[in-house]
Amino acid sequence: MLQDKYLRQSDFSKSEFIEINAPIDKVYLVVETLNFEKSRIIYWLFKLRGIPVPESLTLKGLEKINFVKLETIPNKEIILGLIGQFWTPTGRLKKFKPEEFINFDDSTFAKATWNFELTESNDLKTRLNTETRIFCPTTKTKKKFKIYWTIIQPFSSWIRKEILRAIKNQAENN
Questions:
Q1: How big is the CA angle at 32 (ends 30 and 33), to the nearest 5 degrees?
Q2: Exposure of 113 in the CB half-sphere (CA atoms within 13 A)
Q3: CB 134 within 8 Å of CB 3
Q4: CA dist 62 to 33, 36, 75, 97, Å?
Q5: CB 84 within 8 A of CB 111
Q6: pTM above 0.85, yes or no
Q7: pLDDT in tens, the chain (174 residues)
Q8: If you write DSSP's letter for every residue of 111-174 in order, what string do you get?
Q9: Are 94 and 19 in contact (CB under 8 A)?
Q10: What CA–CA distance (Å, rounded) separates 64 from 113?
Q11: What domains lie within the chain, and their CATH numbers?
Q12: Partner residues linked to 114 by β-bridges
């Protein structure tokens, strides 16, 4: 699991999963191309959550707002990273390279990972799990993030569930 490689220790986490009636390679392709431009719900949830809405709700669009693809294992897992002061109005998202994520150590910032992990149930069924983990390096950042997380977590969870439903719909109907 790439989550353990990039963020073994976390102070906050939340995961969701969905069963998809499609083979793992088809589901992976949908995850890899992550295109939610038609989802008004995801658009508005991003807005409510305070995440700048990228010009396109795709993986490339997310990368433009400082989400970084840390690593992929084809047909198994994709992991994104984000570094910021998420509790501030702008989020103060940092630009960084994938290889800088693990050793980033500015104690005034939190680190987050967001993965999509695929498990083959059988030849025609795939379990897709997504997990968000957040690490706060100090008690002060943890307290600030906890207030933010209490308010934002239901919306964050809703975003993940909507993304999973959209992936399921695209994989099963294309």
A1: 65
A2: 27
A3: no
A4: 11, 11, 21, 14
A5: no
A6: yes
A7: 899 999 999 999 999 999 999 999 999 999 988 777 667 777 776 666 556 665 556 777 777 778 899 999 999 999 999 999 999 988 899 999 999 999 999 999 999 999 999 999 888 999 999 999 999 999 999 999 999 999 889 888 888 898 899 899 999 997
A8: EEEEEEEEEEEETTEEEEEEEEEEE-SSHHHHHHHHHHHHHHHHHHHHHHHHHHHHHHHHHHH-
A9: no
A10: 16
A11: 2-173 (3.30.530)
A12: 80, 132
Q: One-letter amino acid identity for 89?
A: P
- Quick one: tokens of 82? 């984000």
The residue written with tokens 């719900």 in the block is 41
Place of tokens 């939340």: 14
